[in-house]
Amino acid sequence: MKRFVFVVNPKAGRGKALKAWATIEPLLRHKGINYTLVRMNGNQPNFTTDSDTVLVAVGGDGTASTVGGWAFQQSCVFGVIPAGTGNDFAKNAGVPLDPLKALQTVLGGVERNVDVMDIDGRIGLNIFGFGIDSEVVRYAESRRWLKAIGRLSYAFVVPVVLARHKPFHVRLVIDGEDRRFEGVSLVAIANGPAFGGGMKVAPDAQMDDGRLDVCIVSGLRKLQLLWLFPRIYSGRHVTHPSVHILRGAHVAVFHASDLHHGESDGEQMPLRAQTTVKVVPGGLRTLVPSALERRATESTADISTKYGPS
Asked: Which pLDDT score is estimated for 153?
């Protein structure tokens, strides 16, 4: 019998995860689902699992990345209730953004084997990057009020970050092929197409193809970067000659510049002079909507009214 462990991050989405949990918990009780609530506290799991455990992240991309990493390490099935700022992993995987519809996927969806990224031993689900994106994450994390404006925070922060941004040189070895780039402003190694609340940095990336899409932006002045930035929301930036898309299963990154911070799935992480990112094909058993669920036209509004919090 399946046992569901819902890992709720109280800080995700400025309380959005707690609101999502308040919406779905009455339905779990009504259905008699065997579940355990765990409030996320740190980066280590404080619960036990077995072969029948389904780990469910209730939060944003950072929460999904951490809980998904636990599910990968413990060979559990993984589900997600998107309740953060960007929710890009859920979008990339096709999980509905509405908490009740996402719960339907957790309870009645199908398993899809999704690739994960091994970033120097740290598991990532969606993206690893440095340059402008990590500078934006670092700026936003030090100013929590920016989280309140959601995906628009990127559009607000980018011009500020660009004012102090310094391009750098980078060497990439992708599946043994050596490439060098100068005047780089962004390196994004992507498992899924979008990050940062819908920015399609690697629009053709697929989460189950056994390879990573690497986006490098180089040789642009600050005003040119500012002009190019809006195109990333549609993926049209990839047509610009200064944007390079490479693909491979094993990516070694070398840089000699004064860079200390990267980002993985929207969370800051230390950046080494050499970082290795490799794909683990089909490493995460993820619950996604079934064909029947995708075709269903039944509204969840009545369910929310009947079982949701007053």
From this structure: 62
